[in-house]
Design brief:
The protein is 73% helix and 0% strand. It is mainly α.
Length: 260
């Protein structure tokens, strides 16, 4: 019978006793790594959420400033429209004075008085019909859409923007309402609808202020759907047609990231 040395037995017993500790240490280290990775992912998600929220706030502020400028322009147009009517009033008064009044600047000739006769009835001028005044757009719907979008109520915001656009298709803010329909759809994760709304901005309002932003967002939707070549072509179109816009600078960054 072979005799096992005592030190060999001791080493075997030590190894057996150390095995659970090593296993527990490995499990503990794996748990710590998983927790650290989860925290990093949570921090990255929070940073993305905050960045998206700041961008949305900036866009809303820009649109509100643009809306105020549009209101000021509308007021200026209304004032200019009323100025010709006001200018006619003193001219009419001076005309009556020249007919019925006495102009001291002109000498009165010495001549026999004219025979007395009853004046004939003056000719009646045809009534002047006032030109119809164009109805002002319902800006409350526009403001309401912004407010609901900033609060995250995208369904109600889309309803307000769509109502404004339907009631005011030729207004200066119509392209902006169409653009924000795309923004609402994108915020809801409906990329196909968002892309269609952005493309309507370009097709229906080719000279609108929101065309550069609509091209930028169209490229974003195409890229998100994996259509990289179409996204690249859309951003290049933006750079070609609107090279000085802020949207063009952002498109250049996206193209650089896409090529790297």
């Amino acid at each position: 019978m072979k005799v096992i040395p005592a030190f060999t037995v001791a080493l075997a017993l030590a190894a057996l006793s150390a095995a659970p500790s090593l296993t527990l240490a490995r499990i503990s280290r794996a748990d710590r790594e998983a927790d650290a990775q989860a925290r990093r992912q949570q921090q990255e998600s929070e940073q993305i959420r905050r960045s998206s929220q700041r961008m949305a706030e900036v866009l809303v502020q820009e649109e509100m400033a643009r809306l105020r400028r549009q209101e000021q322009k509308a007021q200026e147009r209304e004032q200019k429209r009323q100025q010709p009517d006001q200018a006619l009033e003193p001219a009419a008064d001076s005309g009556l004075e020249s007919v019925f009044g006495h102009d001291e600047r002109l000498p009165v000739p010495n001549r026999a008085p004219a025979p007395f006769f009853l004046p004939s009835a003056p000719a009646v001028a045809p009534p002047v019909t006032a030109s119809p005044v164009q109805a002002q757009p319902d800006l409350e719907l526009f403001h309401s859409g912004y407010s609901k979008y900033s609060q995250g109520d995208y369904v109600a915001a889309r309803r307000d923007f769509a109502s404004f656009l339907a009631a005011n298709p030729g207004d200066d803010l119509a392209d902006s309402a169409q653009y924000w329909l795309g923004q609402c759809a994108a915020a809801q994760g409906d990329d196909e609808t968002a892309l269609a709304e952005y493309q309507r901005v370009v097709a229906s309002f080719p000279f609108g202020d929101k065309v550069p932003d609509a091209l930028l967002k169209s490229g974003d939707m195409l890229s998100r759907m994996g259509r990289e070549n179409e996204a690249r072509q859309t951003w290049q179109e933006l750079l070609r047609d609107f090279p000085q816009s802020g949207a063009a600078r952002r498109a250049q960054t996206r193209l650089t990231d896409l090529s790297s």
